[in-house]
Amino acid sequence: xxxxxxxxxxxxxxxxxxxxxxxxxxxxxFTKPEGNLRCCVYSGCGRYFAYATNExxxxxxxxxxxxxxxxxxxxxxxxxxxxxGTYLSTWERPAKDENGDATKNLKIWRTxxxxxxxxxxxxxxxxxxxxxxxWNLQYTEDERFCARIVxxxxxxxxxxxxxxxxxxxxxxxxxDFALAPGKNQNVAVFVPxxxxxxxxxxxxxxxQFTSPISQKTFFKADKVQLKWNQLGTALIVLAxxxxxxxxxxxxxxxxxxxxxxxxxxxxxxxxxxxGPIHDVSWSPNSKExxxxxxxxxxxxxxxxxxxxxxxxxxxxxxxTIIFSPTGRFALVAGFGNLAGQIDVxxxxxxxxxxxxxxxxxxxxxxxxxxxxxxxxxxxxxxxRVDNGIKLWHVGGxxxxxxxxxxxxxxxxxxVPANNLPNVDPLHPVPTPHPSALAYLGTxxxxxxxxxxxxxxxxxxxxxxxxxxREDEGGAAHSVSNGVPQVGPNGFGRPRRQIxxxxxxxxxxxxxxxxxxxxxxxxxxxxKNKKKRNKKAKEGQAQGEGATTPNEGGLxxxxxxxxxxxxxxxxxxxxxxxxxxxxxxxxxTQNNHRSRSNVxxxxxxxxxxxxxVDAAAAAAQSANAKKIRSxxxxxxxxxxxxxxxxxxxxxxxxxxxxxxxxxxxIKELEALEREGH
Length: 676
Prior knowledge:
The chain is α+β, with helices and mostly antiparallel strands. It is built from seven helices and 36 strands.
């Protein structure tokens, strides 16, 4: 029987190695370490498993779990093997020695070596590496050379001699690089935009660094992801900006380019849906790749090695695409803030959809080395609840489930392709573990979705297109931020339309000087128009009366000094004090006299009547104010009398005020007689 699939996991307090199908048991020879455990990793060949503790690094035989060797280096935070497991890299946090110099925190060790009795294992190379991003050396497929990036250059070393730089690739401003896998010993370097010059990606052959064999320049690239295919014959460049200047995305703008390693082809990959690029992945056959792109619901498309689209999957809320190790299957999933659905497709059977897996909210999703299982796991610190691992068969059924406390990492043990059994992953379907059956018993049957609320008048009818998603037949997503929206007349934003209402006819542009149609006016504008017409008619009537001889030839009323008509001045007299009213009346009388003398010297009798009326109105306004004041005093006195009758003790001033009631009443009666 072939060796079972194996996976390793790291929790808050332990590291475990677990044999999966068909035994589903912990590896018998492995002793679980406990304590503060920071990292664990398998070698690319699958022979070794290493983990770091507070005391040092332990290297284990992954087949049986026995300890092979250990490294006396505490406080290791990162581990990594070379492609064939010959070398092990360790990274510690940056620190300084007694002289204030940075310590060499990146160390390279030979995984297995013969040591004399009592001798301590020593690293074969040491470097200063401050950043945890891109901390490790990059090796060629045969492990002959390795490389690391420093300021303005990429340094190459012979893997057996890390003390001497073997060669240098000098590139001004280089910020990232990637060695090609496979037998092609190529290296790609990236230079971001600088001082108005475009960004560039160049491919060199190792060690011929005089001129690039392929290159591409482009703008809108603050950082990139360099993705080689497994053969090292083609390179995908996923460029991204920190800020999207069009204000369409919080996460910057993304573009994708494809370069061949020999320089025969380079192009920008054209995508037919607007929006960001969520994920891109090469197929293991190195002849095609998949891209998930566009605003939600996103589109997933398979391209060939010439960037020509060959197949598109249905639109949906998806942001991840992962090809199986054999290249037969592809899973398209929506993780993160999406629902966690996983669609599995058979690429060899006309891209037929096999199943949809409801995985919950995983933060890890990987294929098993034999392409029969999909591992999903919810890990900390992204989610500290519902942590655990689940194994799903490629046909959609759950095979294994285990809940854990603060699970931090889970990884498959790599298996070389020539060691995999040649069987159909779909058939036969393996027997689920009892934990899978128990998990199915706890899963609630999803109730029939009630759907969105619909008013009674819309029930029983089909959903309007503007309420549907794009994958349901609705309109495509459009972004308004930074995009000018033009109304039907060519200016401003269009009016919001009430769903279900008839569309309003756009307003016809009016001809300058033409009469305005009342039907196109708003209620307020129509009301103001009526007021203006009424005033115009009244003014016209007064003008006609002034020119008629039988009516005394009175001139139309003129405005006073303060710009108001006499009627409005009369109204203002009621709201002002007596002294102000008298002064205003005097000024008004004088102004009328001066105007009459200047404009109509032959009609003094005609102007006398308005002056007398204004004086009478002022006197009447003053009397009215006195009457209101006296009535207010009487009400206050009656209120004090009620309080005094109720037994309340009043002050002397309040008692004196009550005694003046008779005189106030007499004064009020006298004013009222004068008014009549």
